[in-house]
Amino acid sequence: RLTRLEETVQELIRTVAQLSIKVDTLVDVQKHMLEDLGKLKGDMKEIRYRDKAPAYFGSPSFRRVRAVPDHQVADWLEDAIERGEVTWEERKAVMSADLVVRGILPDGEEAYLLVEISWGIGVEDVRRAVERADILRKVGKRVIPTVAGHWMTEDARAMAESYRVVQITDGYTLWPENPVRS
Questions:
Q1: Which of 47, 82, 101, 156 is exposed most, by the fewest CB atoms within 10 A?
Q2: CB atoms < 10 A from the CB of 177, how many?
Q3: What is the CA radius of gyration of the chain?
């Protein structure tokens, strides 16, 4: 009996070891699926904001809203490269932005929102919006950095307020006072 019990215990140890490997594999697969799902949700958010730009970005503070086609932004930047106003690396940074939106401010002047879109908005999203908006200003446009997403961290919210970044979370828009910087 003791020998049979020892054999049973050894078999259980092997079975638990195999199950442990399978659970580790499942955990790894689940982690990658969650990362993929987060990316897909972010990508869908970008598509939705682009397709519905007037609905999401339009307000009494920003009227006649239109998404700016990427090729138009590329033309502005390449013209600015030829004039020596921006570098190729700066062009690449702006072209990596999620969206540029055109609209009219209450003073009647045209302005642009440089928008970074994420499912969850963090400090890095705010930093990218500010840096890329600063680059786009070099081509002579009035640009307001903007972040948009489903939710926002408190650190990102504080940073956005200090840099006068427009914040759009779950369809609610918070315009900073005097958002246009020179």
A1: 82
A2: 6
A3: 24
3-state secondary structure of 23: helix
Residue-wise burial string across 48-61, b where 16 or more C-beta atoms lie within 10 A, e elsewhere: ebbeebeebbbeeb
For 131, other C-beta atoms within 10 Å of its C-beta total: 17
Q: Is the pTM of this model over 0.85?
A: no
pLDDT of 8 strictly over 70: yes
Q: What percent of the chain has pLDDT over 70?
A: 97
What's the Cα-to-Cα distance from 54 to each of 23, 104, 107, 136, rounded to whole Å?
Answer: 47, 12, 19, 21
Phi, psi dihedral angles at 59 (to 5 degrees): -165, 175
pLDDT surpassing 90 at residue 157: yes
Q: Would you give the DSSP letter of residue 61?
A: T
Read off the tokens for 108.
Answer: 């009647």
- Sorted by sequence, the CB contacts under 8 Å of residue 67 that are 6+ apart come out as 50, 51, 53, 99, 100, 101, 102
User: Of 168, 180, 149, 176, whose CA–CA distance to 57 is shortest?
Assistant: 168
The pLDDT value recorded for residue 98 is 95
